[in-house]
Amino acid sequence: MNRFSISFVRALVGLSVVFSISSCSAAQPTRATPNGCSQSAKGVLACYASFGAISNAPESYDGLDLTISGYVVIDNGALSVYADETSYAHRIIENGLIIVRGPLDLQKSIFDRYGYKYARISGVFRASKVPGDVARYELGSIGGDIKVWPLPDRTGGSEREDWGDVRIDVKDLSSAAPAASPGSGARK
Fold first, then answer.
1. How far, in Å, are 2, 80, 82, 103 from residue 98 at the CA level?
2. What CATH number is attached to the domain comprising 51?
3. How many domains does the chain have?
């Protein structure tokens, strides 16, 4: 081989190594889409997840836009969201809680409007980092461009349906033999 051929081969090998390294560094590991998440047309992964889904794998939601519905409270000095009022009242922490972070004036505004009420909150979720084997009941925090809005309140009498609003005959929901009507005296 002449000098030109050796130089040419070295240049080709060098370029192939550079392209191989650059393609490896550009390749990102694909992330599994967590429960309750979908990709928008703009390629943004947005999540509408339950506390149960988040508590099963908080790290899979880390860094994602998350919308969560829950009960807004002050807990241990932090603006927090529990799954529901009962979980807060009785410190039922199996599904954890999420801490709301951000500027204090924003947190105060959220608390003034939604404190001890149900609300829907969206922002960027950050999973709690658990040092060693220490159990932590906060799943993480939500921050960034936080948006909060009320959940509909269907507990008022004017919006409740009553028996006159029933449209479905329950026996139509099953392929089993029709049950005896109440008061017919039929017993098994």
1. 69, 6, 7, 16
2. 2.40.50
3. 1
- The verdict on residue 185 lying in a domain is no
Are 127 and 58 a contacting pair, CB within 8 Å?
yes
CB atoms within 10 A of CB 97: 24
Cα torsion through 150, 151, 157, 159, rounded to 10: 110
Task: Please give the single-letter amino acid code of residue 26.
Answer: A
Pick the more confident residue, 108 or 145.
108
Domain assignment of residue 177, yes or no? no
Residue type present at position 127: A
Between 73 and 28, the more confident residue is 73
| Chain length of the chain | 188
CA distances (Å), origin 187, targets 1, 110, 134, 175, 180: 100, 57, 56, 20, 8
Cα distance between residue 128 and residue 1, in whole Å:
61
Would you give the DSSP letter of residue 45?
E
Residue 95 lies in a domain: yes
